[in-house]
Design brief:
mainly alpha; 1 helix; V/A-type H+-transporting ATPase subunit G/H
């Protein structure tokens, strides 16, 4: 009977060790899975951030192009106005020189 009690205790200890090893393996699996999910989440977040940055850069580029185009148009209008003013003054200068000569 004492031998049977000792054997039962040994079986319980073996079972306990097996359960402990299984629990340790399961904990490792859970940890590994959590690390993989965290890595995937991080990669996805970085990808979304890069996409958002690229969209913002594209928007900034479009705005920059629009501002440059507007400035070029305004400069063209100012150049045309200056040419008209120069043309008018040129004619006036020619008339002044001719009137002085006559």
């Amino acid at each position: 009977m004492a031998n049977q009690a000792v054997e039962t205790i040994r079986q319980a200890e073996r079972k306990s060790q097996e359960l402990e090893q299984q629990a340790a393996l399961r904990a490792e699996e859970i940890l590994h899975s959590a690390k993989e999910r965290a890595s995937a989440f991080n990669k996805e977040a970085v990808s979304r951030a890069r996409e958002r940055a690229a969209e913002e850069m594209e928007q900034a580029h479009r705005q920059e192009t629009a501002v440059i185009q507007q400035a070029l148009e305004q400069a063209g209008q100012e150049i045309a106005a200056l040419r008209e003013a120069v043309k008018a003054k040129e004619e006036q200068a020619v008339q002044t020189v001719l009137s002085e000569l006559i």
